[in-house]
Design goal:
The protein has about 300 residues and is an alpha/beta fold. It contains 13 helices and ten strands. The relative contact order is 0.17.
């Protein structure tokens, strides 16, 4: 019996024009974008479809990505494609929550808007940094960082790609140490903050206050949490993990391996780009991966699964 996972990319995958065809050509897509505009007080179509500087600023990126991801996901579900499980990378976890029936589409969008603002404000621009470490074993990276202060693992993306985060000087020093330890490359990332590091602990705590006013339900289907790389099935576990997620490592590789062990053999990446599909090829080539980023992709997915 085939099991399907819906997976959603995180910040960094955003592109101008994402979701435009869903907005222009589907009723449900238009409704979701227009609802986001109404809820947030600025034009979501303008943010997503017209060239602007805001799309790459965290406080706007997060709401834009979740709006586009949910619009694409709802159109796919309208075509009869339903997930057995769901997961999202960092920010993408909020789309996964909506897909699992944990949080309403509206609450997912308004919550990440606040999450983006809190994360943007947490650390002054230029103080923190992030870097991608390529072709070095995770255990070795953990060993090197354990003797350092101010730098942590942000993302376990896939074999051979781990992201570190923290104080900019500490991240730069870690890059040199990790290259000396055998990393093929260490690339500083163009990001506006040290995401998924202990420097964002306070932002997570403030998000907890925001979440107090958000209704969550027990998942209708399991979703894999970034913090634990395990399925969440109880409503009471949701909010504490979302608070922790802001400053904790994203265990994406471990989440995917857990889903595969559970029998998931088809992963549908929903959102702009093919970042997660690229990770998937390094995690396991034994599973089917499909993508939805354009409206025309919907029919291709339906055909591939029929």
């Amino acid at each position: 019996m085939s099991k399907i996972a819906f997976i959603f990319p995180g910040q960094g995958a955003q592109v101008c024009g994402m979701g435009k065809d869903f907005y222009e050509q589907t009723e449900i897509g238009r409704r979701i974008f227009d609802k986001a505009t109404e809820l947030l007080g600025f034009s979501m179509p303008q943010l997503c479809f017209e060239k602007n500087d805001k799309l790459d600023i965290t406080e706007y990126t997060q709401a834009a990505m979740v709006t586009a991801g949910i619009a694409m996901m709802r159109v796919l579900m309208e075509k009869g494609i339903r997930p057995d499980v769901t997961a999202g990378l960092s920010l993408g976890e909020y789309c996964a929550l909506a897909a699992a029936g944990v949080m309403s589409d509206e609450d997912a969008i308004t919550t990440v808007r606040q999450r983006g603002i809190l994360m943007q404000e947490a650390v002054p621009v230029g103080v923190g940094g992030m870097a991608a470490i390529l072709a070095l074993d995770a255990a070795k990276i953990e060993e090197v960082l354990s003797s350092m202060e101010g730098v942590w693992i942000a993302n376990y993306n896939c074999p051979g790609q781990i992201v570190i985060s923290g104080k900019k000087e500490a991240v730069e020093e870690a890059c040199e140490k990790l290259k000396a330890a055998g990393a093929k490359r260490a690339i500083m990332l163009n990001v506006s903050g040290p995401f998924h590091s202990k420097m964002l602990t306070e932002a997570g705590e403030k998000l907890g206050k925001v979440l107090e006013g958000v209704a969550v339900s027990a998942p209708q289907i399991p979703y894999a949490a970034n913090v634990t790389a395990s399925y969440i099935t109880k409503a009471e576990d949701v909010k504490p993990l979302l608070v922790e997620q802001v400053s904790s490592s994203v265990r994406w590789q471990q989440s995917v391996e857990m889903m595969i062990a559970d029998g998931v053999d088809t992963f549908i990446e929903i959102g702009p780009g093919k970042t997660l599909t690229g990770f998937m090829k390094k995690i396991s080539r034994d599973v089917k991966t499909l993508n939805v980023e354009k409206l025309e992709d919907i029919d291709k997915v339906v055909e591939a699964l029929s």
